[in-house]
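Note to self: user wants both folds in one dump. Writing first protein now.
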Amino acid sequence: MTPAELSSTVLHAVRRAVDAGELDVTVPARAVVAPPGPGGCGDYATNIALQLARPAGQPPYRVAEVLRPYLVGVDGVADVVLTGPGFLNISLGGAAPAALVEEILSAGTRYGHADAPDAPDAPDAPDAPDVPDGSVVRLHCPHDLRAVVVADAVARVLRCQGALVRVTAEGFDREWTAALGVRVDGVGPAPASPPVTVRPVPAPADPLPLGRDAARWALLHPAAHDRPRIGDEHLAQREGNPLFRVRYAHARSRALTRNAADLGFAAEPGPVPDAPQELLAALGDHPRVLAAAAAHRAPDRIARHLVAVADAALPFLPTVLPRGGEKPSAAHRARLALAEAAGTVLAGGLTLLGIDAPDHL
């Protein structure tokens, strides 16, 4: 069950409870599902009971108790646990990883984009950018390299969520396009219509000597209010460098595909009983992260999410291929598909940040 399907399942549970007379509410248009927060459990959690408590005239925990039986018996749902004031924590059955992996591989690097096939409904809920109605988002930044790079990344993320974007800057150096791949649509004062001002803390040193990929990461990985570090640590090919870990995890996933082809088998989504739950949760959360990054004009959220995906994937990747005299089996094909899905998410996220995702590293 994918996040989009689970969201629909939650809404169907609400509708059944309403039809049975156990809840007197208007069924909402969307239900948000996301990885459980602190104190939660399972694969996903939803705050739908908290959302419905006031219109239902009942405490959130009671609303959750009403909804739980309508979720427990659904195919693909293994268990539902109530925590906190009324969160529904949902554990999925063994087929869940296969459905998620199939969804990611079908969409490719556009997984999580608003215009991608079968784009999940959940990202449209709390964090969706307020722009898919055809209006133009106007981003304006000062004559500052970090501001221009951040605005360029914000524009890429907004466009992936269906927005039309125009970027202007008070000043722009042409070498920035050649060195970092950034562009603006106009140079001069802020436009007459109120723009969204992009003004992160400036970099303390010139990042151009780092090269395009490391420089963009150095400027985008910290939150806008944090001062970026500009140093050779972003070029280090070692575990302590987050950019290296992200790109290495992507390259390793691509290498596994090549190695599997040499062994005569290819990826095929299927059950992975011992799949790392941290990895599955991070992959399933990718659409929400993209929507939140667009809504809050914060590409740093994507950078940190990619680090989480890479850190969850790296321990799993060495388990994918057959060992010794093992012959490739359905389990190996399913593991390879999960590894490819992780690589796909990493490649898509790096692309949105304007950073290359090499197949060899």
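First done. Writing the second protein, which came from a different request thread.
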Amino acid sequence: MGWLNLFKHELKAIFTNVSLVFTVFGGVVFYSFLYPLPYTNELPRDQKVAVVDLDQTQMSRELIRMADATPQVHIAQYLGSIDAAKQALLDRQVEGILVIPHDFYKDVMLGTSPTLAYAGNAALFLVYGTIVEGLSSAGTDLGVHAKINRLVLKGDNFVQATEQYSAMKLNMRPVFNVTMGYINYVVPAVFVLILHQTLLIGVGMVGASENEARAAGKTGYWAEYPVWMIMMVRAFIFVIIYLVLASYYFGFTFTYYGVNRLASIPDLVSMTIAFLLAVIMLGMVLGQLIPRCELVTLVVLLSSLPLVFTAGFIWPASELPTLLRELSQLAPSTPAINGFLGLNQMGATFAQMIGWWQQLWLQALGFGALAFWLMSRARKVSR
């Protein structure tokens, strides 16, 4: 009935459960390489575009060359009509269209504003945005060159004309996502969710396995030790396991993918321990409510997408329905994602993130009390 024997029983229950071990260790390592794989190129590049040049002038050809020189666009086809370009887009031969109108050169030289037509496959929003960005950039650059040429023809010095073509210059400097790509944007938050879901499954499986044994009329060590002892030992073991896995995510994988790491180790450890305890206690509650081990994985996986979209990093939390926003605060992943992103990606101080840390501790205490009551009740019923 000692602590050491209980540790041995818990370790055996965890490491002899093949599904649990595969989910916890295999899942964390597997997803660390699988999930970022689609985002390794950060942003879409060299999207195929068809050009319909109705002007056929030197300036229109210059615009085409400038568009092809952008990193976003690759001019793949030159077509003679808009209908042909539309068909190529529908057949997925190209992802976008650039139409240069008649009298394009004439309008530019007269100082009037010609209309360039862009089109793209809006079913793929990233592709569409990339194409429009590239074509718009080329059109803007050509307009700047034309304006500078007109200023020079009026007698202005070329250097002065270059500096004065615009009254305002935009100098964009990304603060947090320095690469402006999806690795720094998505991966840090999703890795926290992966830790959340795998830990929830692991702890839930231990409790659900006890429910299966209890329903079959069997008994085990979990019926011999006080509930509070079982909870403490189980929490301690899973915290140790997941501190290692969290270190792997926040250490090796962040370095491997070039993700920002701005948090100090003490701040990161403090947030991690609160996060792990909150998830472990929720897992104990889940384990008492689910009768069979295999159902734990199903329930947790079904909650993954709702948790992603209500955490506030993909869609602004202020734009969510109030009910969804409030419900999402019950999941430890929501304060954890916001806390870790603030500390590690945005360089916030721990004092600025203290609210999320306190919320995690409240969840740990609340779920812990509920788990204690459920486990005590199950023991009384079985007796």
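Dump finished. Worth passing along: Strands lie at 47-53, 73-79, 96-100, 117-120.
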